[in-house]
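Re: [help] complex structure
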Amino acid sequence: MYARPIARSIAPVTPTEELTIELNGRPHAVVAGTTLADLVARTLPNARAFAVEVNRRVVPRRELAERRVAPGDSIEIVTLVGGG
Amino acid sequence: MTTTSTHPFPLPPLRIAGFELKSRLVTGTGKYRDYETMQRALDASGCDVVTVAVRRERLVDAAGRSLLDFLDLERYTILPNTAGCFSADDAVRVARLGREILDSVDNPGKGWVKLEVLGDRKTLLPDPVGTLEACRELVKDGFTVLCYSSDDPIMAVRLRDAGAASVMPAGSPIGSGRGVANPANIQLILELLKVASSGGEPSYPVIVDAGVGTPSDITLAMELGADGVLLNTGIAHAQDPVRMAHAMRLALESGYHGLRSGRIGRKLHASASSPWEGSIASVVIPGE
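Output below.
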């Protein structure tokens, strides 16, 4: 009868644990362990020319696959648009 | 007898630090009614450098059409701007993001930036203090900085001294269509930055940026001695943007060659183009 809560208390952290970041100015929930490359792939499947900034610093393209998002990160994904 | 112009006066390219611009007309990519019109207007303008802005990706509408689907990155060198920034910090961030984007598509534009730090939303006039601060920071970071400024001659000197590869004074406020509002100030800037006896360097590039409404505005800027002109709205919001782009291109060439052809002086009295001698007119000429 009481097995379930006990089992839950000793269960390892599940991969579905969520954390909240700010993405392009809005709160956004992601699965713990998400990398910046994952984030780009999921939110912008057609992104071609883009850049990623975390907490006001550019993250170079080659580091996107290694860098995991942390709770509270402020992330901007930007592209080029028409301008003068 | 008919003759065909062989066009013996091609415009030499404009050099800005390590960049070479075949066309001295730099064209914006904003405000067009659609991307196809933009594409044709850019082609008609003859430009090889186009400005773009850096903005958040739209997280919805990922299938929407993108500017980059309509810009041939092999043909155009992209000049990313820092439009919309009202602080030096934000302008520096945007410049770095622009560099990262252009690096990812391997466009030569990754090496430079059109720096603008604005002071006020209504006038879009540059904030001189923020502009100078951001210019210093970006130069330190290795950028070739093309610096949008007001038409203040002393500010232009300060930006040049801070390492700007080109100072780009506004003819008049962005998108205002008022042309070169203060030609004397542009002249002073050109003197201070380009005339050796005034502390300038003849090859230092000065580009008039913003305010162009009609081709004669460009001609005037070039006749004053500007090295080039940057515009967007004057073409994009014309009723026929493609034809206007063509007209702007011709206007730039006219001004460039006009300045170098030694114009006649302004005189109060007329000077007849046809000889008096041999005239059969019998009346007494008034004023003789």
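The first helix of chain B runs from residue 35 to 45.
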